[in-house]
Design goal:
This protein is mainly beta and 186 residues long. It is 3% helix and 39% strand. It contains 1 helix and 11 strands. Strands 1, 3, 4, 6, 9 and 11 form a 6-stranded mixed beta sheet that branches. The protein has a 5-stranded mixed beta sheet with strand order 2-5-10-7-8, with no helix packed on it. The longest helix is centred in the C-terminal third of the chain and has 6 residues.
């Protein structure tokens, strides 16, 4: 390089994971973009609870849901976007939750308590692999579902990515025995 020459650099965010395409009819998160100065007043649950206010949950039915998560910058500090949902327990033995994400992402079923929410069940959402969680609950129970990046600390720059989950009613089937199969032909 000669003296006085200008060095130009291009900085870009690159994701090696395939883009997630939402299926037709999926519920979209519709959260505003995670830009500098963002304050999560959309579905931040217990993490954005103003003093004396109710937590900000997004209610979901069974079916497909597509959202985004990541980190954003507020006054020079990175914040993790946490998405909190209420999913009503179906008329079934289990609520099945399965999905994947463009980057490793936590999915937790949590106790309904903002003071000390505990993880009841958890699963990693990762790229190119569907992962499933089964939660046994009670009919009509509002299940607290939490989705977020795995670390509080950002990698040093704002970053967002997509995820997709599906909520389904699951009733296990009885495995047939040889005797029950034989009885069908007697």
């Amino acid at each position: 390089m000669r003296i006085g020459a200008t060095l130009a650099m291009l900085i870009a965010t690159v994701s090696l994971a395939p883009a997630i395409e939402c299926p037709d009819g999926a519920v979209l998160e519709n959260e505003p973009p995670l830009i500098d100065g963002y304050i999560d007043q959309h579905n931040g649950g217990c993490d954005t609870l103003p003093e004396g206010a109710d937590p900000l949950f997004q209610s979901l039915d069974r079916g497909w849901f597509c959202g985004e998560t990541g980190w954003y910058n507020v006054d020079g500090e990175f914040h993790r976007d946490t998405d909190w949902f209420l999913v009503e327990f179906p008329e079934a033995d289990f609520l099945g939750i399965y999905g994947w994400a463009e980057e490793p992402t936590y999915l937790f079923v949590r106790t309904p308590d903002c003071e000390a929410p505990l993880v009841i069940e958890s699963v990693w959402l990762v790229e190119e692999q569907a992962h499933t969680l089964y939660y046994e609950g009670a009919l009509g129970e509002n299940v607290w579902v939490w989705i977020a990046p795995p670390a509080y600390a950002a990698p040093g720059w704002p970053m967002t990515w997509s995820y997709q989950v599906r909520f389904v009613a699951v009733t296990p089937v009885e495995e047939p025995t040889w005797s029950s199969v034989k009885q069908m032909f007697d």
